[in-house]
Amino acid sequence: MKDNRKSDYSGFKKKLYIRLVAIGIAAPILIYLFYLIFWRRRGGNFVVSVSRFLFHMSDEDAHRFYRIIFRGNLAFFWIAAILLLFFLLLWVIIDWSTSYFDAINRGINDLLSDEGPISLPPEMDATERKLNEVKSELQKRAAGAQLAEQRKNDLVMYLAHDIRTPLTSVIGYLDLLSEAPDMPQEQRIRYVDIALDKACRLEKMIDEFFEITRYNLQQITLTKEPFDLYYMLVQLTDELSPLLQEHGNTAVLTAEEDLTVCGDPDRLARVFQNVLKNAAAYSYPDTEIRITAAKKGASTVITFMNRGRTIPREKLTAVFERFYRMDEARASDTGGAGLGLAIAREIVTLHGGTITADSRDETVEFTITLPG
Q: Taking the domains of the chain in order of start, what are their residue ranges?
């Protein structure tokens, strides 16, 4: 983003102006002092002596040379002397001014260093601030690039790790089927079912990896429209009732029947599905999962609350990270890659909303806030 703020170089301008005025005053004063101290009543004798010594003139010729050349053009020589001194002092000021460019060059060289903040002379305070802002931004980008590289490596590592287990099972059972053509039909069917189940799980995991990559790169175009939120939540609980029944759970919905919200219904259905699946996976058996939805000011708030093991406060933000599983021991049972809540967060964020988690007294609550 372009910064239109005007840089403040008043300190540098003031110092430069003072020095220019100073040399304009100092040059004639110094020449005048030179005249009073060294030249007055002695200058003529000095010129005559030098002329006699250098040019081997007679005393009369040396005096004539002084009267014609020097005394007759005295004003010209003094003006030339003042100008010469002025430009000598000006050269000193230019040399002083270019030292600031050296300082700026050193500051630019320090941009990519890991040392402390860049320091410039007080007169270049505006440039110092700007260089430090640039350095801070470069450090942030470098840290972001390093984090992105680390996440990419993590993606490859988790992908290799999580895919290996079901893939090994699929290959193993297909190997058994290939090596034993006379295997009993009942056993063959069982092995085929297991291999198919593992292959389906593998397909699901690969789909999840592609999904989170797409959302993370924000390549998703939302199709927002007003839709019946109450009906969506009712339909969701009906579709997931077999999964809930496996754990002995029931879903209880509390919401106004005319509750609507503006958003992408397909994407938000994915959010609610992922959160409800997570609640079912980590709920105590034979407990209720309470779903509430209501308007609060200009926002719509949806909460999913279940009874389950309390999540430590330091882990509450981690539950939305990719590949995070609250219970590693149940990874093979749940069959997920730890991406459901990460995908949910990405979708909610694209909608301009928020999703948070809270846990206390063996309850877990996820709160989704959507605009409109």
A: 10-109, 155-216, 225-371
Domain 155-216 sits in CATH 1.10.287.130: yes
Q: Where are the alpha helices (DSSP H) in the chain?
A: 10-34, 43-55, 59-65, 74-109, 125-179, 185-216, 229-239, 241-246, 265-281, 331-334, 340-350
Three-state SS for 305? Answer: strand
Name which of 44, 51, 34 is nearest 67 in CA terms: 44
Could you give the CA distance from residue 304 to residue 289 in angstroms, rounded to a whole number?
7
At residue 254, φ and ψ (nearest 5 deg) are: -125, 110
CA dist 279 and 365 (Å) reads 9
Specify burial of residue 10 (Cβ count, 10 A radius: 0-12, 13-18, 19+).
Answer: exposed
pTM score above 0.90: no
> For residue 16, is it left (φ>0), alpha (ψ between -120 and 50) or beta?
alpha
b/e sequence 275-297, b meaning 16+ C-beta within 10 Å: bbbbbbbbbeeebebbbbbeeee
pLDDT tens column, 57-111? 787 777 777 677 666 676 777 777 778 877 877 787 777 777 767 777 777 777 7
**Under 8 Å between Cβ of 277 and 271:** no
Q: Which DSSP letter does residue 6 get?
A: P
Residues 6+ away with beta carbon under 8 Å from 100? 12, 120, 121, 123, 124
Query: What pLDDT is recorded for position 118?
Result: 78
| CATH number given to 225-371 | 3.30.565.10
